[in-house]
Amino acid sequence: MRDKPIATPSRTREILRKYGLDAKKSLGQNFLMDVSVLNQMLDAGGIDDQTVVIEIGPGIGALTEQLVEVAKKVYAFEIDQRFIPVLEEELSDYSNLEVIHQDILTVELQEVIPEIKHHSGERIVVVANLPYYITTPIIMRLIASSIPFDCMVLMMQKEVAERMAAGPNTKAYGSLSIAVMNHCQQDIALIVPRTVFNPAPNVDSAVLCLTRRSEPLVKVDNEEAFQTFVKATFQHRRKTLWNNLMSVFGKDKTVKSKLSAILEQLGIDPKRRPESLTISEFGHLYEATSSLRDCSEKTN
User: Fold this and answer.
1) Residue 26's pLDDT band (cuts 50, 70, 90)
2) How many Å apart are CA 225 and CA 218, to the nearest integer?
């Protein structure tokens, strides 16, 4: 380990001055300056010399530096061209680092990372300090992919982490919670105060650990359609499940009668709020209303 890590105020300022850099607000860039936070992220992911790491948005390399110290291999994906020479020069001593100038939302990881392409069996962990504005699209793309990651250790806006980790009967629980929990076990590893960033964001952050499940909690015929259905039931959080379902299927008398019978058969009180339903109940409700959705789609 170097005497003065990148994740310190003095070294961060030094690198920014050296390369004439500043944080781009449009890309949600904030530079972390606390090594202890980074070490806790590595611990949360169980990263060691048998781990292949996919890092998203390395920036000037604060987290990257800690990763290459312990991981077998680090693939760092950076969309901002300004940081490529910084990473290549400041971390040139590490042969286990590969910096890739591509957008994680468009790159085909299976083609870029040999360990995935050739199914070499290494443990794969995704690690990132995610820009707030693009957190959800990145996570959902990775979850939906066939990338065999063991877990993802992700720093993000605290509120978003709480929504992704939420369970039923909580204020934060919603369609995003269900989309994530269906494929991953969620755990907030630590809360990160805004004061350890340069520039300081307006909100605190949290590190969310998502461990890939061996199989989804709810298996459905169409994952995208299931998520659309769940999202629709949360459209009006203050309304009952029944009222939200009326918005989905319409108020035709025949539909109402069929829907009432379905809810009774499933043992779901129509007066309940959407946030009280478990993911299993949503799965059963989605499957049971398939014929109603087909009718609704034909009508529209």
Assistant:
1) low
2) 13
